[in-house]
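Sequence and structure are kept together here, with a separate record for every protein. An example record follows, reproduced without changes.
>
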Amino acid sequence: MKTTHKPLTPPAANIALSPREVALKKLYRILAIVGVLAVILTAGALWPLYGDRLLRTKTMRDLWGKPPEMREPKINASNPPGPAPDGMVWIPGGDFYMGHDDYDDAIPVHMVYVDGFWMDKHEVTNEQYADFVKATGYVTDAEKQPRAEDFPDAPPDKLKPFSIIFKKPGPNDLVDLRTHQGWWDLQYGASWKHPEGPGTTTLGRENHPVVHVSYNDAVAYCRWGKKRLPTEAEWEFAARGGLDRKPYTWGDELKPEGKWMANIWQGEFPYKNTKEDGFEGTAPVGSFPPNGYGLHDMAGNAWEWCADWYRSDYYRESPDKNPQGPDSGFDWNERGVPKRVQRGGSFLCADNYCIRYVVGTRGKGEVTSAASHTGFRCAMNAK
């Protein structure tokens, strides 16, 4: 019996390609190689900026089970170098992890060492600032006549002393949380003496944090008292109170045992503050429990000026010992307006808008600007 075999198909390798097909095949190989190289080079360039943050994202933690190993922070011995200056506590210094993974201007979380220093137990109060003004005759930036060169588009009749105050919108007012114009109001005559504008005073609020003070005003007070503003690293070390990478200055829970631990906004910002913590605006200093170092109001109440210039990328290149901040300030949102760092959040921080009372997060402000939610506290070197 004769068997008929079907002709076999020649192997693909023996199929002759046209010159055009050969050229295209070489081109595809070159493009593939170039693409791989581009991915490698891009990843290499971005890794120093975002690699640490990527490794610590929830997705990567789920994949790997835990973050990469990190060296444990070490706090210095707590023995103060001498008697405490009036109203100050000793902050021992040491190693700590600085920054916050969830905020682009606070990454990467990195180990920093700071020397020990003294720090005010609470924010500078209206009464304390009044003593300074009485002794020196100092006039704050908010009380000075604005310069025409700083406001070239303003009519001459609008160049009057002013500050910025919070103005709660009406229930039917539509507010875009992406812009602050819906709740801030330029108020002529507002200052530390007149927090809500002409006709208002600090009477009965002597023990509240002084507000409507610019960076310049804060520095002037510190110098008068032979003190200084804390660096941003000092401020965060102090705020943590000896805790390691906790979200709040008091620990892990926002409301331990159902108790509010800071003066912040409850309810839907900016429409309704339910005042569950007992306060609508600023609170008397020391109204809430201190942190582990004996410091009050390191979260909420009033933003606090720090000595450092603000740059969103500074943590990627900052020194690991006693960082002093960059040489100059730069804000991508306002490129021609250099700013200084602010920390701690304020009574206006809310879960639906700003939760910068969380430790490790950052704020910023132009050095002559003042507002109804911004104050400061002082630091002092060990003697």
Q: What stands out?
A: Residues 19-64 form one domain. Confidence is low (pLDDT under 50) at residues 1-14, 55-68. The chain has five helices and eleven strands.
